[in-house]
Amino acid sequence: MTLTIPQLSLVVLIGVSGSGKSTFVRRHFLPTEVLSSDACRALVSDDENDQSATRDAFEVLHFIAAKRLAAGRLTVIDATNVQPEARKPLVELARRWHCLPVAIVLDLPAPLCQARNRERADRAFGPHVIRSQADQLQRALRSLKREGFRHIYRLDSLEAVESAVIERQPLWNDRRGETGPFDLIGDVHGCFEELCALLTQLGYVVEGGEDQPTARHPAGRQAVFLGDLVDRGPKIPAVLRLVMAMTAAGEALCVPGNHEAKLMKWLDGRPVRIGHGLAESIAQLEREPAPFRAEVRAWIDGLVSHYVLDGGDLVVAHAGLAEEYQGRGSGKVRAFALYGETTGETDAFGLPVRWDWAAAYRGRAHVVYGHTPVLEPQWVNRTLGIDTGCVFGGRLTALRWPEKEWVSVAARQVYYAPVKPLTPSQPERTPDRLDIGDVLGQRVITTRLFPTITIREENAGAALEVMSRFAVDPHWLIYLPPTMSPSQTRPEGDSLEHPREGLDDYRRAGVRRLIGQEKHMGSRVVAIVTRDDGVAARRFQARDGRHHGILYTRTGRPFFADPALESGLLAHLRAALEASGLWDGLETDWLCLDAELLPWSAKARELLKTQYAAVGTAARTALAAAVDRLTQAVARNGAPADRLATLRERQQMVAAYGESYRRYCWETPSLADYRLAPFHLLAGEGRTFSDCDHAWHMATLERLCAHGELLQPTAYRLVDLDEPASEEALIAWWEQLTAAGGEGMVVKPLEWVVRGRRGLVQPAIKCRGREYLRLIYGPEYTAPANLERLRPRTLGRKRALALREYALGLEALERFVAAEPLYRVHECVFGVLALESEPVDPRL
Amino acid sequence: MLLTITTTHRPATDLGYLLAKHPGRWHEKDLSQGRAILFYPEASEERCTAALLLEIDPVALARGRGARHESQAPLEPYVNDRPYVASSFLSVAITRLLGSALKGRSTERPDLADTPIPLEAELPVVPARGGEPFLRALFEPLGYAVDCARLALDPQFPSWGNSRYFSLRLRQTLRLADLLTHLAVLIPVLDDAKHYWVGEDEIDKLLQSGGDWLAGHPQREEITRRALRRDPRLVSEALRRLTDEEDPTLDAHEQSAGDEEDALERDLTLNQCRLEAVLAALREVGAGRVLDLGCGDGRLLQRLAAEPSLTHLGGGDVSPRALSLAARRLHLDNLPERQRQRFDLFQGSLLYRDARFRGFDAITLVEVIEHLEPNRLAACEQVLFAEARPATLILTTPNRDYNALFASLPAGAFRHRDHRFEWSRAEFAHWCEAVAEQHGYAVRILPIGEVHPVQGPPTQMAVFRRHDTPAGQGAAA
Q1: A573 and A463 in one domain?
Q2: B437 near A CB under 8 A
């Protein structure tokens, strides 16, 4: 006997003790698919026969079953299940997770079961137990269907049990194997002319007029109708004929809409309220011969409420489908697919308020649907409504899949007056809202560079506070820069860092072609520049009046408090991009740049006043007084002279410290006093630039900087580790830069992404100058005794963070340029911020 | 860091006996994290100066004791004023190196130790929170002639202005022990730093040894408050790592800004009025389940907890630190389980849709909305009115018109440094009505606090009621 069960179902074994349930399920199912009441009893009480643990055991069993069904996994319940109260919660579970309950009844003679029980030492109950179970089982057989089991199989002999074969059947809606390409077509509502025009425009050959219409795509594309073919419009029978013919010939798939469902009721002669355009269907179908109506009825009846297509990447349903319903089968799933869900409220037009499932959608599959007329299709979290209200005088729209382009034809006239006017979606409302679940708690993020990145809950909590209180609108936050590790510490000499160590780091990783870039000492800034004022709203859904783009800090805050400075600098960038021809050259109307904004004092003024300059003045004054007093004491032989010498050395270090911070400070009364030094072109429309090597970035940015006097190019040198001369040249250049007070240098592999012997290689390593490091390690760190104590520093954590943040930053950009939903981009950017709150030595 | 003490008492070199340190020698003592040195720049019959030079090891200071792991945040940044300024480290040095002088004992010159003599103390760099007025208020009541000069931050950047450091000279005829005691107690008080080298019991001892001089000091309250304050850190470590660089004083802001707003509104006991007004509004709509968003340290929740009709109290805040303060205020850890279940505190943000915001009869936002950037308000409206959709939403915010009545508030300034805007009555009404209209709510605006005939109430409150809510019922949909 073949037992056919849906691929996703809850299989409930029913049989008395000793009927061989466990043996049966062992033979037919994976061990992990089976939940046994005995095993659960053992889990909670260490004894699988402890009847007093039954209640707890079933709580565990139901809990696990719910988790499995929620994850879409077939689940088998191995328990006697002879009592209706044992089965009831299982049927409810199956309903809750929209899958079908299946009953497999092992109805074997009681003496056989008793004999089996006697052979087992742990089954010490008497024959009366089995007898009572057997009675209950007989009663169960009569009530299973009523209880809600959709497939019931009874195996009434040892032979039947032995010969049973289980066949798992995919659900009707499971068409994952069909990869199209598809043309998904929104609500037609009897607009035959427009449908033919649209199909023709899509490349279909449409023939046969209104009486015997057919359409076929020469390249084998398949049409997918999203329901609501009928009602309201002028040529309903013709539309039905065409779509029925196409589905019959395999040229099309079709899901039912709520209007088909209602029409079928009428066709069945059931009472329906004639409204919402059903009258047109009735009038037009009554002119048709009865067999056609019967054919329509049968066809509608055979429609499957939704399809999962293209390997699970595409779901089609008339009213859309929340993730938990996809690929499932139940009355609720069908109802959602046809009608959507409402919140129970009504709007100003008296229409039910629809639950905005798309805003909450976080599924992997793209959901394309009709049902709700919109002026213009708009992706919301991988969902797209393409009913553009043809019958109301709008347009008939198709989405080409996998191309994700839409094609539409205008309605020839208004066939039906809309209840609610078609309006553009309200501008103040952004459809892609973020959910707290997108960011809070421990999270694991998958990126293309680094397979799994774990964000700890505490760090997510800190990032939530900073993001909420200080960050710019998340629509702008398409990138946050990663932290960067310094080189290994120099083992000896008068400083801690040197490019020799940085180069050695890469030599060890097996990277040969490198670039050394001058490190500007200012404040990190991410700049998004738009080519024209419309881009901000169009591409970034920005409603904060930042038409030129935005400048934000490494933690996502607005860079300038003064909006005029921000827009002034962005306008300057915009003009330079225009003048340099880069807009056209890079084929984009916006650019995201990674840059340093100078001077340091512009952004760090508070820090300079409260810390750097404060320490400077305190140190200068205190040491001067001490030197004075000690000089007096030495003069009267009250103090050793070498102590005075030491104090004077300290004084010199403090003086050098003052020079260090002053180099990065100047007054900035106007825009003309700022300098922006871009060093990465991060992304533009449709692409990131991480596939271009750093030499290209440097050359391209040099071109840009030539066209704006506020833009400062970044000096660089290429290095080939196989050529010692280039290495020495780099080191000489670093010495020259840092001797002049420069911060130092960043050494990078020439390519953006390099994998070495031990995985992803550090994307950049900084080698900071001796004088600059006074700002990090303190004015007097160069005293030999201090240096020796500072040398032992471990970089492991810093480097691990640098890689993860780099991967997250690039992932955010990749997702943004691929037009992924906001929450997918935000998750990565938020991740960078959260990792930045990881405890790590801040001086590295 | 340097302290010099000079006397013109004759013979001036008796200072050596009083300090128990010979004027001809070099005295050194190792202290934890540094070293104290005493020497005499001048020692004549007429004038004798002892110099106490403190060498604080900056590396040890930043790393703390023992080997510290890379991941551990340093005690102090390496770029740190501690090695150069007069701080509690000076108190340590005085107690360790000059212990007997501090106690007024001298084996060689017991009488002199008990005698007021002309003394002059000089400190080249004294950090002074509270500035010159506070500095004078500390020392002048004790009889000192005070000379002080503020240090500029950097002569090359005059626009940066002055530092918080002063050079200080104190002169008076008094017992040496008194001078040392005053310095040991008051220098850390002036500095008001988070990091103390001095143990708590030592401070107590010093305060006690202060005895009568402290009891009669007009600044006594502030002196003890500062001296006994221990690291009142309001910001979690993780948050600090994200904010230090951009806003180095966030920590201090949070605290002092809260104090400022409180001080500004103190006369009005406004906070109390606010809580009562919100409670009255909740009673009127008959709410049983209430969620306070932006609950902060839980003041409203604490007030609501006394209302038996409120069966369930939720508190949401974006700051984990605030939530732990709220939990402490409500004694959540010690409540019996059944009472504990009445409360639910969780971290959330007004800018992220949150299923946990649903299922309440009423949501309150007391003095919260003005902490949001204006361009994020739309997101907040969406979260509250389109997603959470409580039957009742109560919101309070300052009335900017009323600011004109705060004499100490400069024109155009906000009441709190973290306020991103403050609305006039007209602006608030306009916003409320637009939001209500768009989302299907009715709104009433009510005053909180004493209403001024021209400027209105100090605080304004809006009570939003969802349209489909039956009158008098607070049940959530």
Answers
A1: no
A2: no
| Cβ atoms within 10 Å, residue A350 | 8
- Give me the amino acid identity at A545: G
* Residue ranges, chain A, pLDDT below 70: 124, 345-350, 421-431
According to the model, what pLDDT value does residue B265 have?
Answer: 63
CB B292 within 8 A of CB B315: yes
Q: Structurally, how many domains does chain B consist of? A: 2
Residues B210 and B326 in one domain: no
Disruptive mutation site among A621, A653, A660 for chain B (greatest number of B CBs within 10 Å):
A621
Give the pLDDT of residue B260: 58
Residue A308: C-alpha distances to residues A329, A538, A805, B49, B240 (Å): 12, 31, 35, 91, 48
**B469 contact A CB<8A:** no
Q: What is the ipTM of this complex?
A: 0.85
What is the model's pLDDT at position A411? 95
Q: What is the mean pLDDT of residues B342-352?
A: 95
Q: Do B246 and A609 touch (CB under 8 A)?
A: no
Query: A181 preceded by cis ω (within 30°)?
Result: yes
pLDDT number for residue B375:
87
CB contact under 8 A, B347 and A461: yes
Residues of B in contact with A624 (CB under 8 A): 124
- Name the residue facing A613 among B1, B160, B440 (closest C-beta): B160
Q: Is B164 on the interface with A (CB under 8 A)?
A: yes
Tens digit of each residue's pLDDT (9 = 90 or more) over A756-789? 888 899 999 999 999 999 999 999 999 998 899 8
Give the domain extent around B454. Answer: 261-466
Contact by Cβ (8 Å): A278, A265: no
Chain A residue with the nearest C-alpha to that of B368: A469
The answer to whether A840 and A798 have CB atoms below 8 angstroms apart is: yes
Contact A353, B386 (CB under 8 A): no
Decide if B6 is inside a domain. yes
Token pair in block for residue B275? 């809580």
pLDDT over 50 (residue B66):
no
Residue B194 tokens, joined: 């988070």
CATH number of A680's domain:
3.30.470.30
Taking an 8 Å cut-off on Cβ atoms, the answer to whether A839 and B74 are in contact is no
* Per-residue pLDDT reduced to its tens digit, A267-298: 999 999 988 899 999 999 999 999 999 999 99
| B343 and B286 in a common domain | yes
